């Protein structure tokens, strides 16, 4: 759906994006993450043709904006964090205008449906100037979906929304994805990304520092894996036997629980279960302590900054 | 651009021009411009009627600046022509002001960015803005025509072919004014800047011919030293203004109408058209360089 090759954007004094290779497959909900100034918005603007890349190639739906500008643009829906609306228009007029622009069939029916979906139909005849931040964001989402785009590009769509608004937007994203839409979403609300996305890319200082399925990226961020094993008849022998294993880095005991840190080279769960059984104890439960996306994000971006500082390019 | 992109562009132009026109019609500015234009026209017509009442004869002044382009003796204009010309000037100034804010306002408010998320490119955007200005001017002209038809009945002043020609010319003038205003608008990111540019250029375009006429009126034997240099300089500037100022194109055409010269009239229409096309292309070029983001 989206493919970039060696995409770079240099401004007078900074390099906003450096050699970015990105592939978003159809049907994915793809998260595009990074700290402020990482180059996310610049990349999105380049994807939309609003910033000219310094070098590199962009393909959207297998086509280039240079040759198929209108046909591509008509198949994309965009919501940005900034709510630039025509304040002199009512919600109905605003959506009607964009409906005309995209030549939406059954326009009035669809506008009504979308206004009902974002729970603003009863306020359709009010001017947008009087709308709250959250209401404006919902209108922007309705505008982006009105023409039934194949690709949704959402730049901080949940910014400034209350918990209900955040949930509504999350539901809309999931529903649209289930209906076959591809979603590229950039957000700082990592807990939301964790709930909605199946693939992430982390950008830092204009470089892609991590990319892949959500779980894999989170795993990669962890140097070690922590296993919490609940054991019956836990004895010192069990603890000693486990500590003696070469891949075990540390073992702690908390009541009947063993907290074991192992390296990431392999999946050691089966070996550990067997060992516990051999030592005459009974394994009741085992779980891996997972890292949150937020923790993974912090680790990845911090280690990348350290690496860049070493290189002298940060 | 590919052939298939043409209808998409036309769709975008229609949708945007329609939105803009609606916004203009719901704004008080256009009605102030119409009212002002009609007030000036009424004042002139009132004076003509008063003059007839007092003297039994109407002696019409020639419209201003006509000798700058074609020279020669110009017959007195028809009574409805001069008031229409002044009304058109006021309407055209409104169009220039409105056009000078058209691009910069959208960029300033960020709505330009949202438009460009969708099927809108620089060509369709600039042309949509241009079309909207022409349509707004057509609305102004519609009110003017209603007024002049009514006044013609009341005053018995005839609406001649010259009047119709002036209407046609004024539409092209609106094109010049809109193109000029949009050129200024494309230069700036802020509405304030484009309004300042509009004021500066309007003052220059009005004052240069006036200063030039004043200096040219001084007898040759009194023109010495600095005055001579000033006269020469304003002469050059005036020549430049006659090609750069959109107002000059109406003057050129109006003079042709007053002279009854079809060739000059057609020439003035062509000049206006070329001026409009050059400035519109220039606006698109500058717009592309400046980008759509705030």
Let me know the largest β-sheet of chain B.
none
Could you give a short account of the major beta sheet of chain A?
6 strands, mixed
CATH topology of the largest domain in chain A: Rossmann fold
Could you estimate the helical fraction of the residues of chain A in percent? 25-40%
CATH architecture of the largest domain in chain A: 3-Layer(aba) Sandwich
Which series of helices and strands of chain A comes N to C? EEEHEHEHHHEHEHEEHEHEEHEH
- Going by CATH, what is the homologous superfamily of the largest domain in chain A? P-loop containing nucleotide triphosphate hydrolases
CATH class category name of the largest domain in chain A: Alpha Beta
Strand content of chain A: 25-35%
Description:
The complex is a heterodimer of chains A (314) and B (294). Chain A is an alpha/beta fold and 314 residues long. Chain A contains eleven helices and 13 strands. Chain A has two domains: 2-217, 3-Layer(aba) Sandwich (Rossmann fold), CATH 3.40.50; 223-289, Alpha-Beta Plaits (2-Layer Sandwich), CATH 3.30.70.100. Chain A has helices at residues 40-47, 65-73, 91-101, 107-117, 133-145, 163-178, 190-196, 214-221, 236-243, 269-278, 293-311; strands at 2-10, 15-24, 29-33, 55-60, 76-79, 151-155, 182-186, 199-204, 207-213, 224-232, 248-254, 257-263, 282-289. In chain A, a hairpin with a 2-residue loop joins strand 8 and strand 9 (207-213). Chain A is elongated and about 75 Å long. Chain B is an all-alpha fold and 294 residues long. Chain B has one domain. Chain B is 80% helix and 0% strand. Chain B is built from ten helices and no strands. Chain B has helices at 5-25, 28-55, 81-109, 111-117, 122-155, 161-187, 191-216, 225-244, 246-259, 262-290. In chain B, helix 2 (28-55) packs parallel to helix 5 (122-155). In chain B, 43% of the residues are buried.
């Amino acid at each position: 759906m989206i493919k970039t090759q060696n995409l770079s954007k240099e401004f007078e004094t900074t390099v906003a994006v450096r050699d970015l290779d990105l592939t978003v497959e159809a049907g994915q909900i793809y998260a595009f993450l990074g700290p402020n100034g990482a180059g996310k918005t610049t990349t999105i603007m380049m994807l939309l043709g609003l910033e000219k890349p310094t070098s590199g190639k962009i393909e959207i739906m297998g086509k280039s904006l240079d040759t198929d500008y209108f046909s591509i643009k008509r198949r994309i829906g965009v919501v940005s964090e900034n709510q630039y609306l025509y304040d002199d228009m009512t919600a109905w007029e605003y959506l009607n205008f964009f409906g005309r622009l995209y030549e939406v069939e059954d326009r009035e029916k669809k506008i009504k449906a979308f206004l009902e979906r974002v729970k603003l139909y009863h306020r359709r005849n009010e001017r947008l100037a009087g709308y709250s931040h959250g209401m404006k964001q919902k209108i922007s989402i309705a505008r982006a979906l009105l023409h039934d785009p194949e690709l949704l590009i959402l730049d901080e769509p949940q910014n400034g929304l209350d918990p209900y608004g955040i949930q509504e937007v999350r539901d809309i994203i999931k529903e649209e994805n289930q209906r076959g839409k591809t979603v590229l979403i950039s957000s700082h609300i990592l807990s939301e990304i964790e709930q909605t996305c199946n693939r992430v890319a982390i950008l830092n200082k204009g470089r892609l520092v991590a990319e892949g399925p959500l779980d894999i990226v989170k795993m990669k961020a962890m140097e070690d894996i922590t296993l919490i094993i609940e054991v019956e008849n836990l004895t010192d022998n069990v603890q000693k036997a486990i500590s003696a294993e070469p891949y075990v880095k540390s073992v702690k005991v908390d009541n009947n629980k063993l907290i074991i840190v192992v390296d990431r080279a392999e999946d050691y769960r089966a070996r550990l279960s067997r060992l516990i059984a051999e030592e005459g104890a009974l394994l009741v439960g085992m779980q891996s302590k997972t890292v949150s996306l937020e923790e993974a994000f912090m680790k990845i971006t911090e280690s990348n900054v350290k690496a860049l500082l070493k290189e002298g390019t940060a | 651009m590919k052939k298939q992109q043409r209808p998409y562009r036309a769709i975008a132009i229609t949708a945007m021009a329609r939105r803009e026109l609606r916004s203009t019609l719901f704004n008080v500015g256009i009605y102030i411009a119409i009212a002002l234009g009609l007030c000036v026209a009424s004042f002139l017509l009132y004076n003509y009627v008063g003059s007839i009442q007092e003297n039994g004869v109407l002696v019409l002044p020639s419209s201003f600046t006509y000798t700058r382009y074609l020279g020669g003796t110009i017959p007195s204009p028809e009574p409805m022509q001069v008031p229409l010309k002044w009304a058109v000037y006021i309407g055209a100034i409104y169009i220039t002001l409105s056009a000078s804010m058209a691009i910069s306002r959208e960029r300033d408010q960020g709505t330009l960015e949202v438009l460009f998320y969708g099927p809108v490119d620089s060509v369709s955007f600039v042309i949509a803005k241009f079309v909207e200005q022409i349509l707004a001017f057509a609305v102004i002209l519609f009110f003017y025509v209603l007024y002049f038809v009514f006044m013609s009945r009341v005053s018995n002043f005839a609406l001649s072919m010259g009047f119709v020609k002036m209407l046609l010319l004024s539409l092209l003038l609106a094109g010049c004014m809109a193109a000029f205003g949009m050129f200024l608008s494309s230069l700036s990111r802020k509405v304030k800047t484009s309004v300042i540019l509009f004021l500066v250029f309007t003052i220059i375009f009005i004052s240069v011919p006036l200063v030039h006429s004043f200096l040219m009126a001084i007898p040759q034997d009194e023109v010495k030293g600095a005055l001579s240099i000033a006269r020469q300089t304003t002469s050059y500037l005036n020549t430049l203004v006659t090609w750069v100022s959109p107002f000059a194109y109406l003057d050129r055409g109006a003079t042709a109408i007053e002279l009854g010269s079809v060739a000059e009239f057609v020439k003035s229409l062509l000049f206006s058209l070329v001026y409009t096309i050059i400035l519109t292309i220039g606006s698109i070029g500058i717009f592309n360089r400046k980008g759509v983001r705030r």
